[in-house]
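Sanity check

After download, print the first record. It should look like this:
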Amino acid sequence: MTVREEQIALCHFMIDSMQRRRIALCDAGTGIGKTYAYLAAAVLFRSCRPSRGAQSITISTATVALQDAICREYLPFLSRVLLKNRVIDRPLYAAVRKGKERFVCDIRLAQRLEAVREKEKNEKQFKALLSLRGKLDLDQLPELSGFDRRQVCVPAHCPSNCPGARSCRYHRYLWEVSRCESMIQICNHNYLLADAVHRLEGRRPLLNDSRLLIVDEAHRLPETARQMCACSVSTTDLTELCSLLEREHLPGSQALRGSVQELAHSLTEPGQRSLCTAFLLTEKRKEALQNTISLLRRLLAERRSLPFSLHYRLEETERLLSIFRRRDKHYVLTLRSHRDGFFQLRADVRDTPAQLRRLLWEQEIPAVLTSGTLMTGGSFERTRRTLGISCRWTETKAASPFPYQENCLLYFPANPTAARFGSGEEADWIAEQILYLVTAANGHTLVLFPSYSLMSTAAHRLRGRLSVPIMEVWRHAQDVIRQFKQCNNAVLFASGSCWEGVDFPGDMVSSLILPRLPFSAPDPLSEAEREQYPTLENYIREAVVPEMQRKLRQGFGRAIRTETDVCAVSILDRRACPGGRYHQAVLDALPECPVTQSVGEIEAFLRFKKGPEYFREERSWKNKNETYAMKSSITQPILI
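Expected structure tokens:
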């Protein structure tokens, strides 16, 4: 089936699901054009089914980049095509809905400008601050520092007596988007769930009523829901609350500060490193929690006027500490503590899928959920379970049209190390493998690590040994990625969020290396999920492996971004190699493509596909014979 035929089939499937008010699960590979498919399906569904009720279509995404692409690229093009063919009689229009922290508060902006007026401020950042006088959306200014964003954004709770209320640009924006006849409203997953919570609790909705829901990047929705349903309180939060209460001259605020110090002492141990563990309720902690809760309740009972935001914080703090005091079984309770007295108590809802079911799927409006990684191991079962979808679903898979058989080569080492994971011996072996693979590909390499610690170790061992620069993605990820894209040839070491959402088309990445399979590290949440399965084997098979496969597919997706891209993908983990425990699971997760266990085959493959101009840079090994001699001493050239 051609790309066009696959896209049309996907669009038809979506329209049929909408007509039948189903929840459509669509696993659509890279390059299939799923965004155009669901936009066209939504417009046709709305045009063919006029209604007196809700008219809007809600599209939820996980990233701002996709929201911008829909507004600036996909919708304008689709609008022109549909207008030309007289499918619609007026252009498509979309309104982007975001949280208030993404918009500027004019009062706070004036205060910030006054605060930095006499100081030595970075010129670029100062100009960005000044330009906010004419811009409302903070996302339009990526050069704005994170600190400045926090100082000038709309606060979580606007004071009722705000002097700028009448001229507030943010409130004018809210008024306009809530009353406009926009056909499409675009938001992120957090905003979608926050709107659902408001509706469930009988509060004013954040979004206009909708007749159709589309969730793109749907594999991110369960994690977003978990974050949304979680609540936490830290040393910083409690100390700030004490300061706010003291500013109001409330009796008992000083006693609360002392109680917070006792609580911190009970939760932390002198000399301990930073730890994140399941919360244990000792007698000492029980007493400290009870004292703090009693003081909070006494402050809440005060018969005097308190600012709404402060009263709300008191209630939420008391509620959260009570969850830990009674060890509420509906939550997974964790403690993050440090030797300097810092702690964070966090309560995660134990049954997030049930929360998603109540918030979204019981509303019975048609929904389309799409992503490139909804299927794991050839099944949607894991996705349905984590999303809480138990009825009226339908599913389809649209395979990527990219020619993986011709343009991709999958490499497993023939003799993987048997060293213990995390040992120095294993790190040495991984570094040597990366060295040989980078040399075979003449640079142009992305190395995706499962952890930052392993990334740091490998970078230290390879520094100064490669003929091309090594770039490491740490805090300022976008800056480093931008430098990598601008560089003619380099090696990028990355972890964390770089497993998905980054795009390196062409020759930027011709070699992708995965030192280890992306299994998630055990934590209190995964231990709580494990309790839901009859045996450890069931848990690994039905939860751990599918999650690894999903993330593996995301990482693999960094390799081939266009129909003409060529890339060698190397997986060094011995568990993934032929004969390894997860070899078949790895093959099931990835597109079908040739497999090799020879580094020499990688160089031959790239030389054949790339042409001589790709290898113009000076090689670190002197000649081809020496290169192949060194490689063949490590692996036997086997092409499977």
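If your output differs, re-run the checksum step. Summary of this record's structure: The CA atoms of residues 335 and 345 lie 5 Å apart.
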